[in-house]
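Materials and Methods. Structural model of AB hydrolase-1 domain-containing protein. The 348-residue sequence of AB hydrolase-1 domain-containing protein from Salix udensis was retrieved and submitted for structure prediction as follows.
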Amino acid sequence: MHSSQFPAMYAEIAVALAAGLLSWAYQTIKPPPPKICGSPGGPPITSPRVKLSDGRHLAYREMGVPKEEAKHKIIVIHGFDDSKNLSLPVSQETIEELSIYFLFFDRAGYGESDPYPSRSVKSEAYDIQELADQLQIGSKFYVIGMSMGAYPVYGCLKYIPHRLSGASLVVPFVHYWWPSLPANISKQGFQKLCTADQRTFQVAHHTPWLFYWWMTQKWFPSLSIMAGNMNLFSPPDMEIIKKLSETPKVGQEMVRQQGIHESLHRDVLAGYAKWEFDFMDLTNPFPNNEGSFHLWQGYEDRIIPFEINRYIAEKLPWIHYHEVPDAGHLMLFKVELCEAIIRALVLG
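The predicted structure was written out as tokens:
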């Protein structure tokens, strides 16, 4: 082979290698297509669903007093890696005494609700509004959001405050990049997280296009709760976990059935995206005390640092802040606390 042919050959090899590398990189950052419920090869549809104006479906579950008779209608927004099948430990006596209708639903991509690649704080709020309208539960309703289910509540406060009778955030998600959050407060809370979670939330916020790769690569640990790290749970949480383990959780196998990326990954991405608003942009949705807004924080919560939620409550004095000394992240599943949360919400 003539020596003058070597540069051309090397160039061809380099181009081929670069193309192969780009193809490999594209495959590693591109999530697989979802397994949509009711589609060929997808999971079956077993729950009632409503069809939204954009064609998506939301699956739901109703509990309590019939909505036509109920005095209080509460939409419960599940947290990370959960679904409409979450079980609140509220007694039938309390439900009847307070005349409560509960509406649970699978957030987009979870359980039997269709995935939505453009999920956001805003879209989740409008999903809630449309669900309420489709089921004709009335012009006003209460919302309870737990953990990652808190950012849809913030969305409701921003985009549909006129629809709310009251709202409650329970061990709520915090956004470490809210512009109004002082750097020292954000850092104080952020540094309480394990290194793996710090990196995961940074990737979600700063380079969301890399998030699927980050969550599936094997070189570094990603989200500790998905890895089953039990150190995340405080002693009060472990007591609740022990009690909950005595009864099999209904429908847990359905939570991720349409794909981990469509359910869990997109939940984190929506929460830690750049929002259209800051918590300091929110105004009191109940200026005449016609409703109330509550924030419940466990002092022993190792997943959500209390410092940030305490700061938010100080800056927004219309928030009724409840910091429970001996409670962790799972406080909503403790009977007496669950009932206290519900009574405070509907009785003000």
